[in-house]
Design goal:
5% strand; 2 strands; binds zinc ion; 186 residues; two-stranded antiparallel ribbon; mainly alpha
Amino acid sequence: MNGVVRTKEDPDYKEMVKCAMCGEVAEVAGHGSRNWHQVGECKDKRVVRLRRAYANSIATAVGTSCKDLGQAEIAGRLWMLDDQGVVLDLDAEDQLREVMGELDGREEREMADLVDLLRVRETHWREQRRFAYKGMLGGAWERMLTNWVIDPTVAARTRKKLFDKGMDFGTKLVKIFSQQITVLYF
Ligand SMILES: [Zn+2]
């Protein structure tokens, strides 16, 4: 790699490891996204099932807080999966818009807010996007909801709810992987 030795502290540090679940060789470190393969990319059936359940629970939570289905669908975009159950990168606005169909004027503005939120063109967008997927949503996400005329109390509660769901998803994911590792080594 151009003769550059990258240490673990380097933001571009990469470590490739074969996944115990699906056998894919994946990046496990770097860009502040430790274990992103397990979180967002692993195609193991159990992992995909868990990811789908997580997406559904998020959809329910944002559906309760948002004014209508269109708004909830935009807010829930970050947890959308591709047809193989892999988390979308959302590095391009196209991906954000995928499967959304026609948006009305208000929805267009809401979509623009979400695009801004991800700061699509900034260097650390991928890291931010991955944290967001795990339920670690910053104050900007909450402000986005209040901009959409959602009551501030509801917006705060929703952010907290999504954080809890993200933590729960993480715990269950670790359980699946540790069970697999136990099977492999004992
Ligand atoms: Zn895997």
